[in-house]
Design brief:
Elements: H1 4-14, E1 33-35, E2 43-44, E3 50-60, H2 72-88, E4 93-103, H3 110-126, E5 129-137, E6 142-152, E7 167-171, H4 176-185, H5 195-202, H6 208-217, E8 222-225, H7 230-241, E9 244-248, H8 268-274, E10 281-285, H9 287-290, E11 296-297, E12 300-309, E13 314-317, E14 323-325
Helix pairs in contact: 2-3, 2-6, 4-5
Length: 338
């Protein structure tokens, strides 16, 4: 029978301890961590002229993933990537993370090793060092992550800074993760020919480089990641900023559904507006700066999709020019299922 100490030792082996004292300059991994794994709590020290950005995220079996559908590797990678997307949405640089996980006994063997392998791979890609956490026995897999990032003092990008006249912009393509989810439900993940369309659902990539670029160049007045879907996340920006918005349907970088796919009765516009888990960045830019935005940053395309208005309504302007209220129909764990 697996003991907790044995699980923790396996975590230690997968995630090497960060150096006590960093060397060199800049944001080197480990340079802010004085005491990490192995004590009752971690001890962090902020850099000069920096502020901590801290976020937490839950990733739960039967709510966010299914063990019958999602491999341990996809769970490990996605759990950390999706949590780190909130750091990107603040324009911050990720530094450390804390992992709390509850496991049923059946998942303490090979499943846990695969989970750790993929999470360590994600940590390497995202520049994160494991600084602590907890393990426990539970009937299903429950994961809680805390991510610590840092940003230059006063440069964090909030939801609340959008102003009337700002242009509304988004990165990447919208609706890809939702399309991947529909394909996975129909067992398309077992076919290598559709791997590209499934990647964003199983292995998302937070837009860290873009977030830091926007913060460094002071372009964005507000920002959020599209974890719950554009229609819902845009509503969060508008509520926090006390503004409204117009979204131009013709400008949305919606996912393209390949004609060779079997009929799934999916509407690309609906996927783009309401599909969650894309983890793209939705941000606002003053109109005078919007024309200077590059087409791409760090290889990720940027698209102007609308504008911020004084009227506190979110409007969708259709391809035919007609305007309708854009209802928030993205992910809401407390919404009643019809």
């Amino acid at each position: 029978m697996t003991k907790e100490d044995q699980l923790i030792e396996r975590v230690h082996r997968r995630f090497p301890a960060a150096p006590v004292n960093g060397t060199g300059t800049g944001r080197q991994r480990g340079s802010r961590l004085r005491i990490g794994i192995g004590d009752d709590a971690a001890v962090l020290r902020p850099g000069d002229g920096m502020e901590w950005v801290v976020t937490t995220d839950a990733f739960l079996e039967k709510v966010h993933f299914l063990r019958t559908l999602h491999s341990a590797k996809s769970v490990g990678y996605k759990a950390l990537a999706r949590a780190t997307s909130d750091i990107a949405a603040m324009g911050a640089h990720p530094q450390y993370f804390f992992l709390t996980i509850g496991l049923p006994p059946s998942c303490t063997g090979a499943w846990f090793d695969d989970f750790l392998e993929a999470m360590a791979r994600a940590a390497g890609r995202l520049g994160l060092t494991l600084a602590g956490g907890d393990t426990t026995n539970y009937s299903t897999v429950v994961i809680s992550l805390t991510i610590v990032g840092e940003v230059d003092r006063g440069r964090a990008i909030l939801r609340s800074g959008a102003q009337p006249g700002d242009m509304l912009c988004v990165s990447g393509t919208l609706g890809e993760a939702e399309l991947g989810w529909h394909l996975a439900q129909r067992k398309f993940h077992r076919q290598k020919s559709w791997a590209r369309l499934l990647k964003k659902h199983f292995y998302p990539e937070p837009r860290l480089a873009l977030g830091e670029w926007l913060a460094a160049h002071q372009y964005a007045t507000s920002m959020i990641d599209t974890s719950d879907g554009l229609s819902t996340d845009l509503g969060h920006i508008c509520k926090a900023s006390e503004v409204g918005a117009k979204v131009w349907a013709a400008k949305l970088p919606a996912v393209r559904i390949p004609p060779k796919l079997p009929q799934l009765d999916l509407d690309p516009l609906n996927l783009a507006l309401n599909g969650g888990e894309d983890y793209e960045l939705l941000f606002t830019v003053p109109k005078k700066l919007a024309s200077r935005l590059p087409e791409k940053v760090a290889g990720i395309s940027l698209t102007v999709i609308g504008e911020i208005t004084r009227e506190k309504k979110v409007i969708l302007v259709g391809r035919d020019g007609r305007s309708t209220l854009l209802q928030p129909k993205g992910w809401d764990p407390f919404r009643k299922k019809s």
